[in-house]
Amino acid sequence: MYITQGLQRHLQQRPNAVAIREMGRSLTFAGLAERVARLAGALKALGMASDDCIAMLSRNSQRYIEYALGVPWADCVLNPVNTRWSVAEIVYSLCDSNSRVLIVDDTFKDMGAAIAAQSPCVRHVIYAGDGPTPAGMLNYETLLAEAIPQEDARRGGDALLGIFYTGGTTGFPKGVMISHANLAFAGLSAMTRGFFGEDAVFLHAMPMFHLADFSALYCLTVSGGTHVVLPAFSGEAAISTIISEQVTDLMLAPTMIQMMLDARQADTQTCDIALGSIRYIVYGASPITPALLDRACEAFPAAGFFQGYGMTELTTGGTMLDAEYHCAHHQQSGKMYSAGRAVNCVELKKVDSEDREVPRGTVGEIIVRGPNVMLGYWNRPEDTAQVLRQGWMHTGDGGYMDDEGFVYIVDRLKDMIVSGGENIYSAEVENALSSHPAVAQCAVIGIPSDKWGESVHAVIVLKAENHVHADTLVAHCRERIAGYKCPRSIEFREAMPLSGVGKILKNELRKSFWENRTRNVG
């Protein structure tokens, strides 16, 4: 398999079908293939050779999809850059991957100039915006217009597709090496669940630099569905685009679902008619609370909800909780609180510190084996050897499995709070806090304690126009979990620090507590 295979098929069979819709504009499969071939030709004209790395720093766009397909078409390697990073982090990733070209849009053109100045490996900066071309940069559209279309290299199989850098939560980011085969498996596995059919209209709401959206991009290209591009996410923009484009499939983080539901309240009648077009909602990055699920089911009455658990090293996919397990019965049975079961062709088990499988119901580290597991970390053989042992990817996540193979994520093992010799899993405390009707978001972390080693600290964002005392929340928790697990301290914030996919950045919450200490749990 190779990532451009789907485009080749639809160029042959459905050249005039719409491949992409963005801001009222449409592009057919024939038009997309022409632009992808020209981008590959432009890269060759700039001197790019096989295996050269091409980076892109941009919001979601049609040109991002062209980049995702055009770079492998040219027999080169992708480096999608995290748009939330600092200049220093981006420079590190470019130099680490030896990226030869950096493509930037209007949002990042000024940052792109600063980055290029600090990145000696970057030979060319390409401006893929709609304004005047900044000094020292090449114009994307001019390059395509002047390029000789390149034949598809059909790069595929175990060849490196891209280097997808982790979020940098511990030190400098690590480059995860994903092959064409990795992405093909992840995409096809998702399609067996019914997602991304030929008639699918998928909204790219998550950032395209993230591998989860890349997986969806691949699926749509294989199936021949339509890409609808949302440059940057907001609840209002997402709802407006769903209405105007009659979107059928979504991939979101629970925080994004909540933002959409909050925006829906401004015009419930119009929204309720339009949101009935949604058939599938895949969510991940964190579990969904029952209260939020109830609101979402009301807003999206025809949608099936699916939870995916994974990570970049697993090409995003490890388990899936199907729609049937989101009903009231499975909320009562507890199945809804699981991350589902291993996806097709993937093995998963829980092990102790010596890699011995633990009994069902016992917490252990989740390890995964299958065609979705990364090739390794770029230029980090020791880190690769540490997590890839005997063919198993050691996730660093703690959890247990029931007798039917459902996996329950307890916590990141590194996020486990050890207080007075007791192991406290923050997810359990967060579940108790989030069940309070005034709580919109919460995150639980361990902070230094001279007496206990670590103490349980909760960060809370309240729902609009809600007020509650910290002692009330602690009492609420005591009714649901053991006293030693309850927060010893609570702080209220207006907003949480979030990653590009809406995941709460606990390392940012910990930072002020653990600075200048010999132990740093972040």
Q: Would you write up a description of this structure?
A:
Mean pLDDT is 89; it is low at 518-522. The chain is of the alpha/beta class and 522 residues long. Helix content is 32%, strand content 25%. Among the domains are: 25-155, Rossmann fold (3-Layer(aba) Sandwich); 192-309, 3-Layer(aba) Sandwich (Rossmann fold); 416-514, 2-Layer Sandwich (GMP Synthetase, Chain A, domain 3). Helix 1 packs parallel to helix 8 (211-223) and helix 2 (29-45) crosses helix 3 (62-73). The relative contact order is 0.08. Strand 25 (439-449) and strand 26 (453-462) form a beta hairpin. It has a five-stranded parallel β-sheet, with helices on both faces. Strands 12-13-14-15-16 form a five-stranded mixed β-sheet. Strands 17, 18, 20, 21 and 22 form a five-stranded antiparallel β-sheet that branches. It contains 17 helices and 27 strands. This is Fatty-acid--CoA ligase. One of its GO terms (biological process) is fatty acid metabolic process.
Q: Mind describing the biggest β-sheet?
A: 5 strands, parallel
Helical run tally: 17
What overall form do the CA principal axes indicate?
A: globular
Q: Tell me what the CATH architecture of the domain at 25-155 is.
A: 3-Layer(aba) Sandwich
Strand order of the largest sheet: 4-3-5-6-7
Q: Estimate what percentage of residues fall within beta strands.
A: 15-25%
CATH topology category name of the domain at 25-155: Rossmann fold
How would you state the average pLDDT, rounded? Answer: 89
Radius of gyration: 23 Å
CATH class of the domain at 25-155: Alpha Beta
What structural class results from the helix and strand content?
alpha/beta
Number of strands: 27
Q: Helical amount among residues, as a percent range?
A: 25-40%
Low-confidence stretches: 518-522
Roughly how many Å apart are the termini? 38 Å
Keywords: Ligase
Pfam families: AMP-binding (PF00501), AMP-binding_C (PF13193)
GO molecular function, one term: medium-chain fatty acid-CoA ligase activity
Domain AMP-dependent synthetase/ligase: 7-378
